[in-house]
Amino acid sequence: MTQRSGGRILVDQLLIQGTERLACVPGESYLAVLDALHDAKIDVLVCRNEGGAAMMAEAYGKLTGKPGICFVTRGPGATNASHGVHIAAQDSTPMILFIGQVERGMREREAFQEVDYKAFFGSIAKWVVEVDSAARLPELVARAYRVACQGRPGPVVVALPEDVLTEMADVADAPAISYAESWPGPEDMNRFGELLRTACKPLFILGGSRWTGEAQKALIGFAEKFDVGITTSFRRAHLFPSDHPNYVGDVGIGPNPKLAARVKEADLLVLLGARMSEMPSSSYSLIDIPNPRQTLVHIHPGAEELGRVYQPALAIQASPGAFCAALADLARPNERPWAEATRQARQEFIDWTDKPGRLPGKFQYGEAMRWLRERLPADAIITNGAGNYAIWVHRYYRFRKLGTQLAPTSGSMGYGVPAAVMAKRQFPDSPVVAFAGDGCFMMNGQEFATAVQYDIPLIVIVLDNSMYGTIRMHQEREYPNRVSATLLRNPDFAAYAKAFGGHGERIETTDEFAPAFERALKSGKPSILHCLIDPEAITPARTLSQIRDDAVKSGK
Q1: How far is CA 16 from the centre of its chain?
Q2: Is 540 helix (H, G, I), strand (E, B) or coil?
Q3: Which of 44, 414, 444, 538 could cross-link with 544 by S-S, CB 3.0 to 4.6 Å?
Q4: Rounded CA gap, 299 and 323, in Å?
Q5: What does CATH list as the number for 355-553?
Q6: C-alpha pair distances (Å), 377 with each of 371, 382, 459, 512
């Protein structure tokens, strides 16, 4: 062993754990780490806001199953980054946020930008730790990687006092981590097989994280062998290929009413990796609490999630990969009374997602989505943040490959652009398309500059209706004709793209979309397509006026 600074020890641990890239906004509180990164073979993406950097790290965790790494400075840097930490928490994504901190001798004085990180992040991170000596960095960083990935994955926050990073120490490195796996027991699988054999209306709902290509392949084989219907949870549509005959749709916000009815009527409901929180459960209306009307089987890698909301008939603590591998040992029943229902549910999915209806305005967003569905290859990665514009993405685009959907189940705005930057950096040969509303884009649109700086040719589609659309919709439903704080005056987003050195085009009609998209691809530059959408086109099924009129008729 030789003397190393805390900054060097920390970066050495990142390399040992296989860190290939990270996102950051630099700060004087962790200069020693930045210095150590100068010589390390780690791809460092310098971002324009800590929120964008943290979202990039979260996106990396989603894409790879390994912790996304983010470095930010103390105080306002850390509080800005909390957006990404909250997404990682609700989306069960492995992530580690490293934060610079005031020197140890200055703590508890409210020194410059001092924050108590255990208090600040304690309710949203899996673990928060402040390192008290350089010699403990190998121990605590290795633990951070384990905590972020094992059980239900999530974010870990590591605070780094500035003088710890400059302190010299002789200490051995921790080994590379091999993460613990939780497997279903033989009795669990025997009981599950019995429940399946006696069912008439089984249905699977997939969700959560820790999915792998092997897990998906095993589940596809099981679905074909048993002829069961497979659905996915909110913003997890990529977990099962949409072009497979056993896929019957997703239970997100405003799901297909026929699929929602099938969830309620299932006699065996299998939640695999999913938690069925507020959004996928339609405000906890699809499954009764605490005793479901369905025979509920819940499979989840985190023991604390089993029975947390719904009391299952069978709880199995296992990761999706382990459970799907165990499915291969189940014998196929001679009778499968649910087979015809699977075919019917599949047709209902096709009917629900096939052809969008016409809405007010010269630009028909649904038709553009339908064109993209046919144009983009299976490995195209689609990202989005939050807003009504995302309804079209989730309904009309069909995900065919694992790891091609990046969207926050937490409903955080501003996610699409930074997530797309990381996705295209990680998979440069795959097309990456970010969707954002005008309000959503402006929350982290500055990360378009990061894409230009690193020559990352993503395409951002901005849907501009000059308002915070989702809130306006709720406003008209609850307080009709009383518009307040939801109108927006926007810049020319195509000019915005050009100002940064990217490609930008303004789209006013449906016919203009496809040629503009092809030109954006051909440009080889980060691109923004500024699409003007009629404010009346607030959902694929209803206009803003219809929502307002219904509210007035109801007496609101």
Answers
A1: 27
A2: coil
A3: 538
A4: 8
A5: 3.40.50.970
A6: 12, 11, 15, 21
Instruction: For strands 381-384 and 202-206, give the pairing.
Output: unpaired
Task: Please report, for residues 92, 387, 471, 481, the alpha-carbon distance to residue 478 in angstroms, rounded to integers and kept in the order given.
Answer: 33, 18, 10, 10
**Same fold for the pair 4-169 and 355-553:** yes
Q: What is the pLDDT of residue 105?
A: 83
The series of mean pLDDT values per 10 residues for the chain, 556 residues long, is 93 98 97 97 98 98 98 96 97 98 86 89 97 98 98 98 97 95 95 96 98 97 97 98 98 95 98 96 96 98 97 98 96 91 98 94 98 98 97 97 97 97 98 98 98 98 97 96 96 98 98 98 98 97 95 91
- pLDDT score at 107: 85
Q: Cα(159)–Cα(11) distance, rounded to whole angstroms?
A: 15
Calculate the alpha carbon distances from 482 to 161, 479, 535 in Å: 50, 6, 16
Cα dihedral across residues 503, 508, 512, 513: positive or negative = positive
* C-alpha torsion sign, points 304, 310, 311, 317: negative
Tokens found for residue 281: 């459960």
CATH 3.40.30.10 fits 186-347, yes or no: no
Task: Give the position of tokens 């939050």.
Answer: 386
Supply φ then ψ for residue 225, to 5 degrees: -70, -40
Q: What is the pLDDT of residue 335?
A: 87
pLDDT, position 104: 85
pLDDT recorded at residue 109: 86
Per-residue model confidence (pLDDT) at position 114:
83
pLDDT computed for residue 307 by the predictor:
97
The tokens of 117 are what?
């990180």
Q: Which of the following CATH numbers is that of domain 4-169: 3.90.1150.10, 3.40.50.970, 3.40.50.300, 3.30.230.10?
A: 3.40.50.970
Q: What are phi and psi of 537, to 5 degrees?
A: -80, 70
User: Rounded CA gap, 154 and 474, in Å?
Assistant: 31
Exposure pattern of 101-111 as b/e (b: 16+ CB <10 Å)?
Answer: bbeeeeeeeee
Tell me the domain boundaries of the chain: 4-169, 186-347, 355-553
Amino acid identity for residue 53 in this structure: A
CA dist 451 → 71, 157, 245, 505 (Å) = 18, 26, 38, 17
Integer Cα distance of 38 and 18 in angstroms: 17
